[in-house]
């Protein structure tokens, strides 16, 4: 087998780049507007459609975005509570959802968001049957599975933002420790987005130098340099931000804009995104978790077949079982 065949599991053959470039964002809250602003500011697409339930907030955000036109490359922005405004989108980003209520169980939150998705996903597919769906709403891995089931779209066109943000925070924290730019820190957080994510320490490298070769205890309990604290900080800093400012927006906005650019421009960059992982690393269930994927204008082109150590595989399979258990209780 060639290196490419050993490295990449093909999901589908590419069909070339897009002509019309339109992105829809559902949910104009803190995250949705950070995504919209980042995408506009980077001139990634020609049209942006905003959808929400709240008419006034929608109208207010539309005006504010339109008043940016003097400062950015031209982009047509439309907003409506009517999904017709989303027609012919290449990518629909879903940030709509409701937050966990005080003392609410995760399962109840999920069922509430499933009910919200039943009102959103079919509308998006009705007006843009060829769209890619990118789910950001939490719990993102389960809601990406729910969007896939409700939409009936092929697996390559339904993705979740997954651990793309977790991995970006991971790179930043390692860059601070090593005094090397985050873009030159290579390594992946995979599996479930959030608290139960899996840091692939065996793959963290700078210029191809594996840090674990320099410190075999890296990521473990008895590591004198306590590198595992970096992964813990990826998780704890999210809670710290919620405590300090009540939400998070800027990093997730830029993380989503980066993936949007890869898709709209068919750039084939690799991102850790939530995708159907059945068949990978011994996972047998229909669950969505994050693995490094090659993204293009038609969605997931390849999944990277990473070499994981026994502990990393065990953690990933545990995430898969958790997802499957919760998915079994959902009512569509
Ligand atoms: N995946 C990640 O890395 C990540 C990071 C940060 C936040 N998030 C998630 O993003 C989601 C949004 O966070 P936020 O801070 O923007 O919340 P928010 O409450 O500020 O915004 C949510 C928006 O969704 C809208 N909405 C609710 N139900 C709707 C429906 N049925 N149709 C259309 N719009 C609807 C609301 O009106 C609101 O404007 C949350 O689930 C949050 O957990 C995910
Ligand atoms: O930066 C965040 N902020 C959120 C947030 C934003 C507005 S309200 C909560 C966050 C922060 C902290 C915990 C948490 N947990 C959660 C779990 C399941 C849910 F359905 C919803 C939220 N979510 C949403 C979220 O996913 C993130 S990234 C994140 C969270 C926890 C651990 C690691 C990372 Cl990289």
Overall description:
- The chain is an alpha/beta fold and 332 residues long.
- It has helices at residues 3-7, 30-41, 55-66, 106-127, 140-151, 164-178, 211-214, 228-245, 250-264, 310-328; strands at 8-10, 22-26, 47-51, 76-80, 91-94, 132-135, 158-160, 189-191, 197-199, 205-206, 209-210, 270-276, 288-296, 299-304.
- Helix 2 packs across helix 9 (250-264), helix 4 crosses helix 5 and helix 6 (164-178) packs across helix 8.
- The N and C termini lie far apart (42 Å).
- The model has no long low-confidence stretch (mean pLDDT 95).
- The chain binds nicotinamide-adenine-dinucleotide and ligand D0V.
- The ligand O=C1N[C@](c2ccsc2)(c2cccc(Nc3ccc(F)cc3)n2)CC(O)=C1Sc1ccccc1Cl is lined by residues 99-100, 109, 138-139, 165-166, 169, 194-195, 234-235, 238-239, 241-242, 247-248.
Give short descriptive properties of this protein.
single chain; 332 residues; alpha/beta; six-stranded parallel β-sheet; four-stranded antiparallel β-sheet; globular; binds nicotinamide-adenine-dinucleotide; binds the ligand O=C1N[C@](c2ccsc2)(c2cccc(Nc3ccc(F)cc3)n2)CC(O)=C1Sc1ccccc1Cl
Shape estimate: globular
Q: Give the topology string: H per helix, E per strand.
A: HEEHEHEEHEHEHEEEEHHHEEEH
For the record, give the distance between the C-alpha atoms at the N and C termini, rounded to a whole number: 42 Å
Radius of gyration: 19 Å
Strand order of the largest sheet: 4-3-2-5-6-7
User: DSSP helix count?
Assistant: 10
Structural class computed from helices and strand pairing: alpha/beta
